[in-house]
Amino acid sequence: IKRIILSHNYIFWTAFHIILGIVSSLSPYGLIIWFYAVVGSSFFMVLSLKGIFPFIAFITYLISFELLARMSQTSPFIPYELGKYLLCFMLILGVIKYGYKNYLGLILVLLLIPSIFFDLSGKVDSKTLVFNLMGPINVGLAVWFFYGKSITKVQLIKLLRISLFPLIAVLFSTIFKTPSYDNLEFTLGANFETSGGGGSNQVSTVLGLGVFICFIFLINKWPITGFRILDFFLFFLFGFQGLLTFSRGGIIGGVIGILIIFLFILMSGKSEKKRFKLPRLGKVFLIATILSLITFQVVDNLTGGLIGLRYLGETQGTLAGTKEKSFDSITTGRFSIFIEDLELWEENLVWGVGAGSSSFLREESQFYFSHVELSRLLAEHGVFGLIYFLILIYLMSRLILSKRPPMEKGILFAFFIIALYTTFHAAMRTYLTPLFIGLSLMDVRMVKHKPKTSKEVEIEVQKKTNQNFRPVL
Q1: Closest by CA position to 43, among listed 32, 59, 28, 21
Q2: Which end of the chain is more exposed for a tag (fewer CB within 10 A), N or C?
Q3: What is the helix (H) or strand (E) element at residue 445, kind and residue range?
Q4: CB 161 within 8 A of CB 4
Q5: How many whole angstroms separate alpha carbon 410 and alpha carbon 186?
Q6: Can you spell out the DSSP letters for 243-280?
Q7: DSSP letter (8 states) at residue 450
Q8: Are 379 and 369 in contact (CB under 8 A)?
Q9: pLDDT tens per residue, range 105-119
Q10: Residue closest to 391 by CA, chosen among 223, 147, 155
Q11: Phi first, then psi: what are they for 337, rounded to 5°?
Q12: pLDDT tens digits, the chain, 473 residues: what are they?
């Protein structure tokens, strides 16, 4: 992890993760070996250091392999729900070693405990309990650990880059596994053939995150690969493959993040733009917009116009006239599950129905997992679930009111919004929500340079003179 953090050979690490993604699509052992090589070489090293950044980078990098591990079927060597177990362990370890600055995260965890002790459905086993509770618990632990921790702007850039490398591996694994486009049959439903063996919703979520992080690098002219044209190409590929999954939530999440960055730049005054050297919304905005439109048009042509209809909320039934277009059809049944969860909460207002019970007690959508975490929290945890969600809203309001440079504040706020938005279409089934809610609560501090003495200036000038000297032959 130290080598990846300190390396400026960006193209090497990009190529390495491209190869890792392709190898993982052929055999799970490439990823297993690399994962444990990183753990074995880095775990005790990051714990031995005084600074917190290597520990955060270590968590971020390893957790980001969660989806690739699922797609490569690395279980039991790398658990199917890697993000939940490893994140839980590392966050508890982080709280013990590095401390904490408030108790809000602990309160979030405590609010979930009552629902463990009752089950109105009588069908919840230990596996279902863990599946439903680990996501919200990890959010609480992430808030507890990350809140108020400080990193520098340079460290934030390194963190963004190190979180992108595993996403690049996912991207190229899905591309490699996708059949020839001539053999693909597109419909108005999620496409599992273009999802690389992972759940289309989860793959779309990760690829949408890749679109957003690539955009941050592009607009700030920070290098991803070290070659600007390749960086734009990565942006295109993330969007292209994300659209091909036909799962809309993830790509919409990436677009929301991009719009937030634009909003923060536009709302900044002239003095702020000059002081913090904010990027101008000129060439990059124009290129990114044109590239996005081209990407959508290419995919729309490839799918025979179906991707456009998909994003308009059409289904096979609505086009055939056998089904009326409604908010429920547009959200692929999520709205009806949401309403039934609210009905369960109305009947069990204070305590809820118990963790994991809602899917067994709904009438129309029985045995379907909730895709909206808010309604699941209300149905299963009652008033405690409502308080849990209100604390998250409070943290969001604190973030928006905080005093930070516009770009850093925009990035952190976008992290929080993307993480929260993801809970409305994929619940808390991926690492993205707990990790990025946690990361959004950090402070990005400006490094203050001490004024140089006249002697230091003289030495620096002499060094530059020596570097520029070339003997004349």
Answers
A1: 59
A2: C
A3: strand 443-445
A4: no
A5: 37
A6: HHTT-HHHHHHHHHHHHHHHHHHHHS-HHHHHHTTPPP
A7: P
A8: no
A9: 999 999 999 999 989
A10: 147
A11: -65, -40
A12: 999 999 999 999 999 999 999 999 999 999 999 999 999 999 999 999 989 999 999 999 999 999 999 999 998 899 888 888 999 999 999 999 999 999 999 999 999 999 999 899 999 998 888 888 999 999 999 999 999 999 999 999 999 999 999 999 999 999 999 988 877 888 877 777 888 877 888 899 999 999 999 999 999 999 999 999 999 999 999 999 999 998 888 999 999 999 999 899 888 888 888 888 888 777 777 887 888 899 999 999 998 898 998 888 887 777 777 778 788 878 878 888 899 999 999 999 999 999 999 989 988 766 566 788 999 999 999 999 999 999 999 999 999 998 888 899 999 999 999 999 999 888 887 889 999 999 999 999 876 545 555 455 445 545 544 444 343 33
208 with 170: CB under 8 angstroms?
Answer: no
Helix 248-267 to helix 228-244 angle, to the nearest 10 degrees?
140
Instruction: Name the 3-class secondary structure at 186.
Output: coil
Strands 150-152 and 443-445: parallel
Report the b/e string of 105-128 with b at 16+ CB within 10 A: beebbebbebbeeebbbeebeeeb
CA distance 63 to 68: 10
What's the predicted TM-score (pTM) here? 0.90
Token couple for 78:
């790398």
Q: What are φ and ψ of residue 423, in 5° steps?
A: -70, -10
What stretches of 188-322 show up as alpha helix (H) in DSSP?
Answer: 200-220, 228-244, 248-267, 270-275, 283-302, 306-311, 316-320
SS3 content of the chain, % helix, strand, coil (to 5): 70, 0, 30
Q: How far is CA 220 from the centre of its chain?
A: 20
Q: What is the spatial distance between Cα 209 and Cα 110, in angstroms, rounded to a whole number?
A: 30
**How many whole angstroms separate alpha carbon 462 and alpha carbon 343?**
76
Nearest to 169 by CA among 262, 272, 50, 38: 38
Count how many residues are written for the chain: 473
Which of 420, 461, 424 has its CA nearest to residue 437?
A: 420
The Cα–Cα gap between 161 and 349 comes to 44
Q: Backbone phi, then psi, for 445, in 5-degree steps?
A: -95, 150
In the chain the first and final C-alpha atoms are separated, in Å, by: 45
What count of other Cβ atoms lies within 10 Å of the Cβ of residue 410? 22
Distance CA 52, CA 60 (A): 13
Contact between 111 and 392 (Cβ < 8 Å): no
